[in-house]
Write a structure and sequence with these properties.
About 35% of the residues lie in helices and about 20% in strands. Helix 16 links the parallel strand 19 and strand 20. The protein binds adenosine-5'-triphosphate and magnesium ion (MG). The site of adenosine-5'-triphosphate has 18 residues, from helix 4.
Length: about 625
C-alpha cells in the first residue's frame, strides 16, 4: 500500500507565516464546513491536537494543530483595526517531526524535531487515518528482540482509531507520573486500565510480569477492579459496614524513628517540648536496647536499687556488652520494642529519684507536682494512643503481636499467591472512612517503609524489584499551600517525589485539582495523562508542563469526552490525544455513582434493615477489644 502521497482532496490551506517551529496556515476558501471527504470517510479540519503535513520534496514535515481562529481575532489580539477582508480562517501549527516514506519497505522513517522548515505558500494537507496511525507506530519504534519490551497497550490514538497507543513503562515510571482530570473524567478508570495493562503485559513472548504496585485508596474503589489479583488492607472498619474481606494492616509503632515516634506521642507544637522530647527519646532508646539484649529491663516498681545512686538512670548493661555499645546504639532503626518497657522506664526510672529521706539508696517516686510538670502528660498521651481502637494497627504492643519486619514488608512487596495459583500482585491500602489523623500516619508509614526498604537494597536487589506507589487525591498529601490534610504523610511523599527515582520507587499521582498540588512535586513528574479538565486554573497549571508550543493543546481539555486524555511526557512516544482502553465492569474501580432510578424502583429498607444501620450508627457492634496492659498503664 502506498501512503503519504499528495492527495488533492485533503489539501486544507497554505502556509502564510513561519516562526521557528510554529507556522500559521490560512485555510482555503473551499473548506466550507471544516470537513473534507476522502475515500468514503469524513475528516475534520482544524481539530486541536490533530496532525497535518507539509510536503517538501520527498520529505514530509508533520505538525500538531494548536489553534484555529478567524484572522479578525488575531487583529483584535494585536490591538489593530480589523480590515474588511479579514474573514479568513487561520490555523496555528506546531511542527514536531520529519519523515520519509519508504514505499519499497512500506515504512515511515520518522525523526523527532524539525530541520527543514516549510515556506510561505506551501500547501498543507490532512492525513488519512492510516497515515496518522503510521506516524504513531513509527514514533513508538520497533521492539527489539531479546530485550524486555516496556511498551504496554494503554488505549488508542484519537484521529487514528485502531492504532493502539502504548505507554513506555520504563520511562513513565522511571520518572514519576501524574493522572489528572476533573471529577468523573475517568482518572481512576485510567489508573485501572494502566495497571491492568501492566498485569497483562508480556515483556517477551514467553515471560509474564509481576508488577509491584501499592495503591493508597481513599474511596475504597480499587478492590473491585482487581479482585483476586489484589490484597486489600485496612486499618480498621470505622463504620462496621465492610462487605469485602479486607486484611488488617500491620504497621507497628516500632517502625518509626525516634523522632517520628516522639511526634506521634508529643505532637509538633507542644510547649516545654524539649524536656518532654527527651523523656521519650531516653525511654525509647532504653526499650529498644532491652529488646536487642544490650541492657536489662527497667524496674517495674518503686523501691529498687539503681546501678549508680548518683546517676539513677544509668542503664544496667548486660554481660558481654559495654557502655560503648550503649553509646553507639542507633535508636532510629526499625527494631521492635515493648511499650510496657517504655512506660516502665518513664514511670519507674525517669520519674524517680533516690529519695534523701526515704530508704537509703532506693528509687522513690518524685513529688506529685514534679510528676505533673513533665511526665504526666507524656504518659497520658501514650495511654490514650494505646487505647484508641482506630490506631490499633499501629499501637498494638509488640509483645502481643510479635510480627517481624520481614512479615511487615511482605504485606506490600512479598509474593502472595492464592491456592488457585493467582498471584496477588496489587496491594491496596483502603483508607476510606478513616479520619485524617489516622489516614495520615497510615499512608505516611507505608510511604516511609517502602522508601526505606528501597534505600537499604543493594543495586542488584533494586533492579529486580521496582515499586510503584499510587496516590489518589494527591492534593491531600502535597498541597501547594497550607498544611496537608494528611499532614504526617506530606514529608514521606515529598521525599519519594524528590529521591524515589534513584532507588526505584515511583509515584503515580492522581488528582482532580492539579492547581492545588505543590508545584515542585508535580514538576518531578515526567509523564502526564490529562483527562477532561474544566477549571481554568487547573488548565493553566497543565499548560506549564506541556512541551513548548503545545500549551495551546490545553484548549481541548474542557472538551475531552470521558476516557479521552492528552498523553504527554517521557512515557508517551509523542504528545497525543488518546482514548483510554475500555474496561469491563469487573475490571473498573467501583463507581460511587448511585443509580436513583434503579434504587427507587425497589421497596424501602425494612425496619430490621434500618435497625442494623442504627446499630452501626449508635455504637460498637462488638465489645471493643481492650488491651489490658494499656488500661493498667493509665497512671491515674
Ligand atoms: N477505562 C474505562 N473503561 C470503561 N469505563 C470507564 C473507564 N474509565 C472511566 N469509565 C467510566 O467513567 C466513570 C467515571 O470514571 P472514574 O471513576 O474513573 O472518574 P474519576 O475521574 O476517577 O472521578 P473522581 O474524581 O470522582 O474519582 C466510571 O464510573 C466508568 O463508568
Ligand atoms: Mg476516581
Amino acid at each position: 500500500m502506498n501512503y503519504f502521497g499528495m492527495i488533492p482532496e485533503l489539501k486544507i490551506g497554505h502556509v502564510v507565516e513561519v516562526a521557528g517551529t510554529t507556522i500559521k496556515v490560512e485555510l482555503s476558501g473551499d473548506v466550507g464546513e471544516l470537513t473534507k471527504n476522502y475515500d468514503g470517510r469524513v475528516y475534520s479540519v482544524g481539530q486541536i491536537g490533530s496532525i497535518v503535513k507539509v510536503h517538501f520534496g520527498r520529505r514530509l514535515i508533520f505538525g500538531f494543530v494548536t489553534l484555529l481562529r478567524m484572522r479578525s481575532e488575531e487583529y483584535i489580539e494585536q490591538g489593530k483595526p480589523i480590515p474588511v477582508d479579514a474573514d479568513q480562517r487561520l490555523m496555528e501549527i506546531e511542527l514536531f517531526a520529519e519523515g520519509v516514506w519508504n514505499g519499497t519497505l512500506g515504512n515511515l522513517e520518522l525523526t523527532r524535531g524539525v530541520t527543514t522548515y516549510p515556506l510561505p505558500l506551501q500547501s498543507v494537507h490532512l492525513l488519512t487515518k492510516e497515515e496518522t496511525g503510521l506516524i504513531f507506530s513509527a514514533a513508538e519504534g520497533n521492539h527489539k528482540l531479546g530485550v524486555f519490551s516496556p511498551m504496554v497497550a494503554f488505549g488508542s490514538y484519537v484521529g487514528a482509531e485502531g492504532t493502539t497507543c502504548h505507554a513506555n513503562l520504563d520511562k513513565m515510571l522511571g520518572l514519576h507520573c501524574a493522572v489528572l482530570g476533573s471529577t468523573g473524567s475517568g482518572k481512576s478508570g485510567a489508573v485501572a486500565a494502566l495497571i491492568h495493562s501492566m498485569l497483562e503485559h508480556k515483556p517477551t513472548p514467553d515471560t509474564n510480569t509481576s508488577p509491584r504496585i501499592v495503591i493508597i485508596d481513599p474511596h475504597g474503589e480499587y478492590g473491585s477492579a482487581f479482585q483476586e489479583q489484589a490484597v486489600i488492607y485496612k486499618a480498621y472498619d470505622p463504620i462496621g459496614n465492610d462487605e469485602g474481606n479486607p486484611v488488617t494492616v500491620a504497621l507497628p509503632y516500632w517502625l518509626l524513628s525516634a523522632d517520628e515516634f516522639r511526634t506521634l506521642v508529643i505532637g509538633k507544637t507542644e510547649s516545654e517540648a524539649t524536656s518532654q522530647n527527651n523523656i521519650i527519646y531516653k525511654a525509647l532508646t532504653h526499650a529498644r536496647m532491652v529488646h536487642a539484649g544490650i541492657v536489662a529491663p527497667a524496674a517495674a516498681r518503686h523501691g529498687e536499687a539503681p546501678v549508680d545512686v548518683n546517676d539513677h538512670e544509668k542503664p544496667r548493661v548486660i554481660n558481654g556488652y559495654s557502655f560503648e555499645d550503649v553509646l553507639q546504639f542507633d535508636r532510629d532503626k526499625p527494631r521492635p520494642f515493648c511499650l510496657d518497657e517504655l512506660y516502665n522506664h518513664i514511670f519507674y526510672v525517669q520519674a524517680s529519684r533516690v529519695h534523701p529521706t526515704g530508704p537509703a539508696g532506693l528509687l522513690q517516686p518524685i513529688t506529685p507536682s514534679e510528676f505533673a510538670k513533665s511526665f504526666k502528660s507524656v504518659l497520658d498521651k501514650l495511654a490514650v494512643l494505646r487505647l484508641d481502637p482506630r490506631i490499633r494497627f499501629m499501637m498494638r504492643n509488640y509483645r502481643d503481636s510479635q510480627i517481624s519486619l520481614t512479615e511487615i514488608l511482605s504485606q506490600f512487596v512479598g509474593q502472595k499467591t492464592l491456592p488457585n495459583g493467582t498471584s496477588q500482585d496489587i496491594r491496596i491500602i483502603d483508607i476510606s472512612g478513616l479520619p485524617n489523623e489516622v489516614a495520615g500516619p497510615l499512608t505516611s508509614m507505608v510511604a516511609r517503609l517502602l522508601f526505606n526498604y528501597k534505600v537499604y537494597q543493594t543495586q542488584s536487589e533494586r533492579k529486580k524489584d521496582p515499586v510503584v506507589l499510587v496516590c489518589e487525591e494527591a492534593h491531600r498529601y502535597v498541597p501547594n499551600k497550607g498544611e496537608a490534610e494528611y499532614a504526617s504523610a506530606q514529608n514521606s511523599i515529598k521525599r519519594i517525589a524528590r529521591e524515589g527515582r534513584k532507588y526505584g520507587v515511583s509515584l503515580m499521582l492522581v488528582s482532580q485539582r492539579p492547581a492545588d498540588i505543590e508545584g515542585t512535586v508535580i514538576a518531578q513528574c515526567g509523564t502526564w495523562v490529562v483527562l477532561r479538565l474544566t477549571n481554568a486554573s487547573d488548565q493553566q497549571q497543565v499548560s506549564k508542563f506541556l512541551p513548548d508550543g503545545l500549551s495551546g493543546m490545553t484548549r481541548i481539555l474542557p472538551n475531552l469526552v470521558q476516557q479521552e486524555a492528552i498523553f504527554v511526557g517521557e512515557g508517551a512516544a509523542m504528545p497525543c490525544r488518546i482514548k483510554i482502553r475500555d474496561l469491563p465492569l469487573s475490571k473498573l474501580p467501583r463507581s460511587e455513582n448511585v443509580k436513583f432510578a434503579e434504587g427507587w424502583a425497589g421497596p424501602r429498607l425494612t425496619d430490621a434493615e434500618l435497625g442494623s444501620v442504627a446499630l452501626r450508627m449508635s455504637g460498637p457492634i462488638e465489645p471493643m477489644q481492650r488491651d489490658p496492659v494499656a488500661e493498667n498503664a493509665l497512671p491515674f
